[in-house]
Amino acid sequence: MTVRSRSRDARTCPALLAIFLLILSVHLAKSASEYDPYKILGVSRSASQAEIKRAYKSLAREWHPDKNKDPKAEDMFIKISKSYEILSNEERRSNFDRYGQMDENQPFGQSQHHGFRSFHNSFYFDESFFHFPRSRDFADSKYMLHHAQFNSDVLPDSHKRPYLIKVTSEWCFACIHIEPVWKETVQELEPLGVGIGIVDLGYERRLANQLGAHRAPSIIGLVNGRVTFFHQAVVREHLRQFVEDLLPQKLVEKITDNNYKTFLDSWHVENKPSLLLFDQVPIVPLLYKLTAFAFRNYVRFGFVDQGETHNARLLRMFNINTYAPTMLLFKEDTEKPVDIIQARGMKRQIMDEFVSNNKFLQVPRLVSQQLFDELCPVKQFHRRRKYCVLLITREDQAFLPGNKAFLDFATTNKKDVLRFAYIYQRHQQPLCQALLYNQAVVSPQVVILERRSQAGKVLYRSVSGGWNGSEEDKYLLHEQLELLQKDPTYLSSDATLPELNNEMAPIFIIQWMNAAYDYIIQIYDDLLYSNWREMMPILSLIFSALFILFGTVIIQAFSEPGDSKPRKPKPKEQPQTEDDASSRASTSSRPPRKDFVEVTELTDITYTSNLVKLRPGHINVVLVLTNVSKNALLRKFAKEVFSFSGTQTLHFSFLNADKHRHWMPSLLRSASEAAWSESHCDDDEESSDYSGHVLALNGYKKYFCIFRPVFTGDDPNDSSSETSSHSRSRSHSREDRAGSKRGSSRATHIEVHHKLDRLGLWMERLMEGTLPRLQVPAWPMLDDTNNSFTES
């Protein structure tokens, strides 16, 4: 009987367990459905954001505890607010639709009920049903980074300290494997001042994409806003070295007996105090490097190895205790430190406090607006007044005694409400002009000022008599400072100061070189470790540029031989000349129909068709030339009018003045008396050099426009004469109304190849219709029968 009862119990246990799990899952599913945000707000799952917002406002007014006295109103109002918080955020809404997730701190895929994912489609077990999820360590929660927090806090803070960031995710077994090493590293580096962060790929996908992290686990270093990935084995020593390598080089200078004097005397150029650390270790401690990185804009750091034999004189000079690390801070006085700290276990907090209290020199030079804001802050109503005693001087040798006397005065009259500083007039001229009313500094001047607003408004008073560093000057300045502390209205003048020039800013080429160096290092790092996801945009850009470059070269290489081959002559057309081929180089917004310019000679045969019986709206552009200037002028003429040869209403011809020497005087003589005087016609008839003149003839309306060569004053041998002639005024009205005698006399002094330099501009005015027109009663007749056809 005992055996049977045991077997019966064994068969009963699985059934009871299945019933228990079914009841539990149904109960959890019911409890999850009770907190459905869609049901609470009364909207469907396909509702838009406007419908959700409208429902939320209506329910919030109805269930607000101040208006609804129902005891359940407060709980209902909380549920309404929580539901709207989930559904108004697309990411949270998507998580709820997919996983039933309501709390943003829950991992993806883990719903409220943990047993069933959904009853929408089928009976489905989640993987968390079989084993409990890995709960995040409470100590890690304070390091969790969010996208907004990273950009507002961590990114700016990375300019003061490096950050070590771990990228992890739920159910990442490799993350569990490196967890002990990570914790040890955090315990070691965080007290030194290294920032620690953790990014969850599931929760912060946007932040992970910004960092370029696409897999877990990943370890990232962040310094000065630059992201660097850790690619070595996850060992504590490697992580420590990784953080040390993130810091800029030459943060700390090695100091010995040979260079300590130069290091301490550089305060005048660097405008910073100098700090020396004496320690027994041969290498610079990481703690000291991190402190130097945090205060690199204020203090210069040097390290002295006490074990080196080359540093014996330094140890004796400053009486250094070799049994504990010692820090000495120097300002203007390089023989005596202004502050000393010595401790066997140096802590980061102690070092930060020590350096923060000595960030500035006794009398620093104002070299930037940031330094001015820190030394002379704007007056706050809840704080005591702070006055800035400013010495305006120069860096010349004659001003050094006065500058030294001002430093001595500031050292002996240190007060919490006073800040002493000096500026060089040559470097900060706008500021000096605002305070001195544009007066040059003959002798140093002392100005006492109080800043009243961030916009630059100040109240100030100049110390009368200037500053020579005498005892009388010191007494007078001391007296005025005493009066100022008793009566704040002593500052009677006001002004608005401009922003200071940044004297320490690197030049543009240095900034560009640093940025290029960082970019090259990043590309090398990505190539070395095959981060192809990040490299794809860069590689695409490089290959696109190379394709365009080499494609252009190849096209040019194959196109040039084809252009140089002579073209076959077309039927019924004369072959092209070598001179005409040069016109193809011209470009125009209106491409011509042909790659040559057809120029016909005006003879008895072509004269009637090309001029007398020219169709309405058509214009014949005629070049006047001689036998001597024919080749040069035709070449130049074809080049200038090539861009206009695509116009169907324009025709191009040339007239040989040697053959028809009476045609031009006859044309000018028959022009309208209102536009052309008789005296000019006589002069033109006497002058026989019409080569280089261009006529635009309208045969139907019987008018013409004339272009004359004009001497531009350019050197005929100067290759830039054509360019300079085009840069002159385009107005030709004076040319068209000027006497022909003056035009002809000037044309005789112009080289043949420069006579048509302005023809292109004249053609533009012809197309615009702005040229003056000369009417003729009838066209003169030609008396020759020569006929030729020229293509250019």
Automatic annotation (TrEMBL):
Location, primary (coarse class): endoplasmic reticulum
InterPro entries for this protein: DnaJ_C16_autophagy_reg (IPR052448), DnaJ_domain (IPR001623), DnaJ_domain_CS (IPR018253), DNAJC16_TRX (IPR043361), J_dom_sf (IPR036869), Thioredoxin-like_sf (IPR036249), Thioredoxin_domain (IPR013766)
Keyword Acetylation: no
SUPFAM superfamilies attached to this UniProt entry: Chaperone J-domain (SSF46565), Thioredoxin-like (SSF52833)
Domain J: 36-100
Comp. bias (Basic and acidic residues): 562-575
Membrane topology qualifier: Single-pass type IV membrane protein
Annotated segments matching region Disordered: 561-593, 716-749
Signal peptide coordinates: 1-31
Transmembrane segments: 538-558
Keywords assigned: Autophagy, Glycoprotein, Membrane, Signal, Transmembrane, Transmembrane helix
GO BP of this protein: autophagy
GO cellular component, as recorded: endoplasmic reticulum membrane
Subcellular location: Endoplasmic reticulum membrane
PANTHER family linked: DNAJ HOMOLOG SUBFAMILY C MEMBER 16
Task of the protein: Plays an important role in regulating the size of autophagosomes during the formation process.
Name of the protein in its database record: DnaJ homolog subfamily C member 16
Organism encoding this protein: Amphiprion ocellaris (Clown anemonefish)
